[in-house]
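Run log, item B.
One chain of 529 residues. Sequence copied directly from the ordering sheet:
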Amino acid sequence: MSEIASPWDGTRFPRERTTGVVLGLNLVQTITAGIGAGMALLSIMLGGFPAGFITGIVILVIFAGLAIPKIAGRAPVEWAWRYIRYGVRGAQSQLVFVQREAADELYAGQPEPSAPVLGASVQGNGRDEKGRIVPGPGARFRLPGEANELKVYTLPNGAAFVFDPRKGEGIVCAKVMTSKGFDLESFDTQEDRTTHWRDGISAAVRLPGVARVQCSDQTTLISGARVKEFYEVKGQAVVAAGGVAGASLEPFLHASFEELMAEAQDTPVHEMWMTLVLSREVLSRRIKAQGGGLPAFMDVALQVMTTIEGALPASGTSVVAWHSPRSLAALSRSAFDPDSTVQISERSGDWVGVSPSSGGPVAMEVFSDHVRTDGFLHRTYKVSEYPQSQARLGFLDALVFAGDFRHTVTTIYQPTDGRAALRKLQRRKADWTTSDRLLKKLDRQPSMEHEREWEDIERAEAELVDGHAALWMSVLVTVTGRDEMELEANCGDLLAKAVTASVELRKLYLEQDSGLLAAALPFGWVEKA
């Protein structure tokens, strides 16, 4: 009996795009090369031979050096522009952030949500007599740069709704959990879970108004006291239900566990969350139909949250709870100051989490290849190349479990209009065909990379025609260390694991601050390049 082929056989990712306007050069490179060729020709015509000719050759070589080669995925002329922007930001003191405002506490009391919510939240007013949400005053996250505009409100179920007035987007974040270790499953079950995860993500990004979906796994530290508190709460619940737990059940094991937790150091655990970013512009008609304004936008967010809760369980992933403003601020705060994770984990009752006004860093300084915040250094990488041969199911787990140090692996999914994606592919095919024709006229042999790109274009077009969702995907990894030596050691461990995952990591030079906000914070704060 012949074996049934896996639907994932032959799965691989396309290479980083090389097709451009002419011979693989993008628009900026083509313009730069064109200007150089024009200046060289003008120099030859005006200067004559040999002075004008020599000057023209020098100009041509300089501009070719700026336009043609690529360093870390970009041409030198593009890097020059980024260095200029970086220098201007430094001159305007935009590379240093200091928290100068007092962190006033805007929280009082704890509402009674109708759905699971992590911790206490801003006191909201619920709904009015007409059933419309009353947002309340809200609170502002004090974050660096434009992220300082983010404002958080409380939904009727106690969850946080973050509004970005600059982009006109609403943000909700869920704490998620997987049911079982993926590597422990049989291959058939892994296939099923991967298929369900694909379907769940496709359903999420196809929901009207969803602008981005962020899925993050953060290796963090938690105190033994927090584990002990969780054990005691569960034991009390069992006793209240008429059962036996704790010392009454196993006195020796109970005493041993309490002694172990009392002496336990910080233990690495994985914090997973899913962030949904909703576009007010796309949802404008739906928002207007429900009364308009921020209250209607929040109502729409509640409906999307319910849909997501039902779409994920088949993939082995479930929504444990929706983050409240305080628990969301705790994620943000611990990203800048990992030491605060231990202190925050020991809080209980109304003090679970932190105030949004304390969710940002006390100070942040941006360098070309890392960021310093509150005594820690952070470096963010982007996965620039994915597996080129057969991709292993769950290949990113090598990055997630890279080691027992603070790091966050974030995947961003951004939906793209199917027709627009097809038109873009048609343009890529035209660009590739033009480059191929020029190579043949110049009697140059096409490279294997050039031929493989045609296969990637055809594969992508076939998938769109078959009805698959058009997605732009990006994977970011932020690594943290207490000093440069620890940061370099942690980054070395991560790069070694990248080889196992068959991916290529690239530092986000001159973009480390935006990379940190996108990868380590739960706000889906990223823009498609």
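Observations after the first pass:
- The first helix runs from residue 27 to 67.
- Residues 12 and 389 are 6 Å apart (CA to CA).
Flagged for discussion on Thursday.
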